[in-house]
Amino acid sequence: MHIALVSLFPEMFAAVTEHGVTGRAVKQGLVAVRHSNPRDYTVDKHRTVDDRPYGGGPGMLMKIDPLQQAIAAAREQAEQETGASAHVVYLSPQGRRFDHSRAVELAQKDALILVAGRYEGVDERLIETEVDEELSIGDYVLTGGELAAMVVIDAVTRQLPGVLGHEASAEEDSYANGLLDCPHYTRPEDYQGRVVPEVLLSGDHEKIRRWRLKQALGRTLERRPDLLEGRAMSPEEVELLAE
Ligand code: SAM
Asked: Record-annotated residues binding S-adenosyl-L-methionine (predicted)?
């Protein structure tokens, strides 16, 4: 997958492109990360990337031309490298809430361009003409879109085939099957008087699978009942919930 980052602070992305599972995916070539910095498309000697908003008021906006050119360059590169046209996402607190299902869908794209805003955001006409989708990572306002873009990169990358060491682990994570994950335990068997549930020591894989599913169902019902609304339950899930 090709991911282009349009940002004034490309160095911030080292957190996901150079470390951990996502960093390994980049090194293995499963994800190709490219940068396009609006500052490289400025023409004045101060390399100005912000401008005053029409109508006045506090704060600045990102200057439209350098940003548009940075997106255009990212588009061209994505098309050259993948042969596909890129899906352009503007990270914005006003966007649709980013969630697991959108991460899975975005992981199907050949090329993504993530546009990180700064200051008070970007000119509305740029969103209208250049952006396919606005995504928000939550109901709060960040100082810039980079952290939000990193959240998207991380969540999307771990959905790509071959990225997670153990193929099945993404499928068992919270949200993957519409449920929260079950509780997990590692050594020691007794931690401050709290012992690992016996079934996990039994070696009976079928029993363990049913116990985990029951725990996941119970946890979801308790913490996120909204996830169960309208979710089709299997006969086994109905049985386990009733137990
Ligand atoms: N004036 C804007 C508003 O109230 O909608 C907020 C601008 S914010 C200070 C600067 C940039 O941070 C935005 O352009 C956007 O890229 C990013 N950003 C802030 N909060 C975000 C969120 N919850 N999700 C995604 N991006 C966010």
From this structure: 117, 137-142
